[in-house]
Amino acid sequence: MTGAAGGPEARARRIRDRLGLVFEESRPGRRGVDPIPLDVPPAPPEAEPEILRERVEGLPELSEPEVVRHFTRLSRLNYSIDRGLYPLGSCTMKYNPKVHEWAARLPGFARVHPYSPDALAQGCLDLLAGLESLLATITGMDAVTLQPAAGAHGELTGILLIRACLEARGDARKVILVPDSAHGTNPATASFSGYAVEEIPSDARGCVDLDALRRRAAVGDVAAMMATNPNTLGVFEEDIAEVARVLHENGAMLYMDGANMNAMIGITRPGDAGVDVMHLNLHKTFSTPHGGGGPGAGAVAVKRHLEPFLPVPRVSGAPGARRLGYDRPQAIGRVRSFYGNFGMLVRAYAYIRSLGAEGLRESGLTAILNANYVRRRLEGVLHLPYSSPSYHEVVFSDRDLEAQTGIKTLDLAKRLMDYGFHPPTVYFPLIVHGALMIEPTETESREELDAFVEAVRAIVEEARTDPDLVRSAPHTTPVRRLDETGAARKPKLRFRP
Amino acid sequence: MMRYLPHGPEDRRAMLEALGLERPEDLLATIPEALRLRSALDLPPALSEAELQEHLSALAMRNASTGCYRSFLGAGAYDHFVPSAVDHLISRTEFYSSYTPYQPEISQGTLQTIFEFQSMICMLTELDVANASLYDGATATVEALLMAQRAHGRDRVAMAATLHPEYLETARTYFRNLGLAIDVVPHAADGRVDEKALAAAVGSRTAGVAVQSPNVFGVIERLDRVAEAAHGAGAAAVAVVAEPYSLGILRGPGGLGCDVCVGEAQGFGNPLSFGGPYLGFMAAREKYVRQMPGRIVGETTDAEGRRGFVLTLSTREQHIRRAKATSNICTNQGLCMTAATIHLSLLGREGLREVARANAAKASYAISRLTSVRGVRRAFSGPVFNEFALELPGPASDALEALRARGILGGVGLARWFPEAERRILVAVTERTRREDVDAYAAALEEVLR
Predict the structure, then answer these.
(1) Chain B closest CA to A253's CA: distance in Å?
(2) Is the same domain home to B317 and B442?
(3) Which candidate from B348, B360, B412 shows the least CB-CB separation from A43?
(4) In chain B, what residues touch A474 (CB-CB under 8 Å)?
(5) To 10 degrees, what angle do helices B396-405 and B435-449 make?
(6) Peptide bond into B165 cis (omega under 30)
(7) Which residues in chain A have their CB less than 8 angstroms from residue B43's CB?
(8) What is the number of other CB atoms lying within 10 angstroms of the CB of residue A26?
(9) Do A481 and B349 touch (CB under 8 A)?
């Protein structure tokens, strides 16, 4: 598998070798847009000369075909979901339907100004109201805001809602609890909302340790617990209703991180388990594209008691007479400009309308089936640290592999690239030694899953027979392993002419 | 609905058999009975792709696109022309269906694009370092002031009353719980920040001073003087830019002495899209780099000495530092950033200059035509770029409604945010605005106010 001269990866590397920065490819006098014919008299800028400039120095000079070629070549250095399995755990890299891209680009969505009069944006407002209602039904919650721009932004919104509600009751309290398996955004969000953060350990099943929670909640200073369900081990929190009960009994609330909601739709609803507030990553569960790292969308769903605090504005009114309302005295305020990542909301709405109740449930069940199939086929090949049933994802450890061969998770991940796969999420959750977190999603065929399994098996075999091959992987990618330590020690963060 | 699900019945059977199970539902054993849904979710029936297209087209047709009205709406969202090549390129699946470049060996396309974006933002702002983007202009403003708080360890910030009001509101939401008080600095009669009031508001407890230019009235600020006032008190000078094309004409805030520049770069490559997704950006002086929020890409080399790019300085971030991270942000605005980088590459050194100058010329023409309508005058005397506030002889809401009936979205009524400004409107033009649009607006305004 080491870089055959004619293989696609070797070609990709040759492209890489010829590819400069857009600034390096620039040549004086070339242009990618034509001069604008001015239909009004030219006018000098109004501001004082000392705060004006002639032009922005350093911007490139390239023709349109050169720009198109530059970014086309760059794009070819990326792995993508349309190329193959992208099993990043907790990221839900499922297929992104093409019709969504068409929909978001309709001029009646893409060219609508956010300050258009409500009467001229009834279609947009209808879509927002419609999506809020669909998500409320799916989660079993009472009200939804679509404003947050991403999951972490949704978390922040949710915790601010809890704070506002508790303040209205007279005591905002001091502490947010997170499980030791939590996403890093959970503790970061808690401190960004002015709360102290404390960890609750996981028990042998990988679930929240109920006794530890009972003891901590009883102190009386806990505002909420943030829990992911299924959690980051891919395990369903069996005691979720009891977790909620314990928190409520002690005057606290339950925040659910919905990052892993994909497998739950149509099967169980967080609202029925006592969750007070949760976010949904529309770019995960509802298949809006990940865009190389965004834009996302992080809808937040709440129970009735938190509804008065939802951020402004809110869509109200009947179809045909929808409006954006700002007069909400108890609202936490604004969490961003305008109304949310609308283009992403169009895609999520299209997804739910395409699948319907049955299609969503079928998707969730298939996601669980796929994860369990991979788990079964890799059990015994890699160490499985938690034997609890898996849902949408399965987490393995490099414990045995490292002990027997010296090959670590990082090496296995890098070698997977030589076999044509994107690696799983690695080294997370933190409670697992050398974690490999695999989330195949429902849009993968049995053949693709089998090929992935075979690749992992082959690498484990290589770890025994030719460990250096694995340790020095990848061999066939556009670049080899990169010096990340050097990058951080002497940061070079921009091009300078 | 099976078209997105590859398994046929035989695949399912074989996979279940491998698991020793009869039905997929057998995989749900650990979900307590009481929590399982007894019936199907009450959702509308699934639509075929053809039906979905009909339905969404019908919804979209119930909105007025800026293509069917003569639109003069701006206020933080601008209808600039975007060449077709931009949308073509970001429609490549390698850009839009990949994720955060956690594995750099197979993500060099995204990583190099971010590096190029960071470089361009530094050039535009005349600052040293930039990050890979933030959600939008409002949250970028918030993050900049929180960064100033971390760097300077103080408990107040000064914010101009002429920041985009939604940016200010967002800051209030965030800061309330973080022990950061806001001193709002009023504007003077010319529409610029009141320099005396600014001097009075900034003191030994001020971590940062945020001023937007052009501000919410479209007025260009003297960021050099703002920076002086901030530095006099040992505070960070934070420039906020909501219309990035202005940087094609104005000095970069860094060149005027500011320490940080944040804002909204939607106009580069991204459609209006009813307010999002947009593109927050942040640039700063070198000394702030380890306090910056969000992803940052750096250059490095691979095992064979080849140049490559990686996410770097990640010890600032939530997945490493958790509760002590510089921000909770994880996902940012990757594809919007890619669109902006491509658009800026096409515009280039001359194109940006020309578009910016075209905007200024169109504004100048619009000001002269509209203020020649009887009773209409400029609300502020301060210099503007492509957006300006007008004072009408009567209530703005009536005039805007009457204009709308004539196919013109005449601007944003400023009473939306400033109750005392009920006769004022904010009018924006771009290079897309045609002379005939302005002439039609002037003629209609004449009629409406008669």
Answers:
(1) 18
(2) no
(3) B360
(4) 105-106
(5) 120
(6) no
(7) 134, 137-138, 352, 356-357, 360
(8) 20
(9) no
Q: What are the C-alpha distances in Å from A204 to residues A126, A179, A201, A387, A389?
A: 47, 13, 10, 9, 13
User: What pLDDT tens digit does each residue of chain A (497 aa) get?
Assistant: 444 445 666 666 666 667 899 999 999 999 999 998 999 999 999 999 999 999 999 999 999 999 999 999 999 999 999 999 999 999 999 999 999 999 999 999 999 999 999 999 999 999 999 999 999 999 999 999 999 999 999 999 999 999 999 999 999 999 999 999 999 999 999 999 999 999 999 999 999 999 999 999 999 999 999 999 999 999 999 999 999 999 999 999 999 999 999 989 999 999 999 999 999 999 999 999 999 999 999 999 999 999 999 999 999 999 999 999 999 999 999 999 999 999 999 999 999 999 999 999 999 999 999 999 999 999 999 999 999 999 999 999 999 999 999 999 999 999 999 999 999 999 999 999 999 999 999 999 999 999 999 999 999 999 999 999 999 999 999 999 999 999 999 999 999 98
What 3-state class would DSSP assign to A17? helix
Q: State the Cα–Cα distance between residues B382 and B196, nearest whole angstrom.
A: 17
CA distance A168 to A305: 11
Interface test with A, best of B1, B51, B56 (most A CBs within 10 A): B56
The CATH number of whichever domain residue B203 belongs to comes to: 3.40.640.10
Cβ contacts from A onto B, under 8 A: 691
The residue with tokens 């939804």 is: A144
Enter the ipTM.
0.98
Query: A151 vs B331: CB contact, 8 Å cut-off?
Result: yes
With both helix axes pointing from N to C terminus, report the angle between A64-75 and B334-370 in degrees, rounded to the nearest 10: 150
The answer to whether residue B388 sits within a structural domain is yes
Query: For chain B, what is the domain count?
Result: 2
Q: Which domains does chain A have, with CATH numbers?
A: 8-75 (no CATH), 100-354 (3.40.640.10), 358-486 (3.90.1150.10)
> Inter-chain contact B106–A31, Cβ cutoff 8 Å?
no
- Cβ neighbours of A159 in B, within 8 Å: none
Asked if B377 and B424 sit in the same domain, the reply is: yes
Nearest to B274 among A38, A76, A114 (CB): A114
Q: How far is A214 from chain B (nearest CA, A)?
A: 20
Restricting to A residues 136-195, those with a Cβ less than 8 Å away from any Cβ of B are: 137-138, 149-153, 155-156, 160, 163, 183-185, 187-194
Tell me the chain B residues in contact with residue A492 when contact means C-beta distances shorter than 8 Å: 298-300
Of B43, B87, B302, the CB nearest to A480: B302
Q: Could you tell me which chain B residue has the CA closest to the CA of A358?
A: B40
Decide which of B301, B318, B342 is a domain's last residue.
B342
Distance (Å) from the C-alpha of residue A218 to the closest C-alpha of chain B? 23
Amino acid found at A103 = A
Torsion over CA of B108, B111, B117 and B123, rounded to 10 degrees?
-90
Q: Which domain holds residue B434?
A: 70-82+349-449
Return phi, psi of residue B68, to 5°.
-100, -10
Q: Are strands A436-438 and B387-391 parallel, antiparallel or unpaired?
A: unpaired
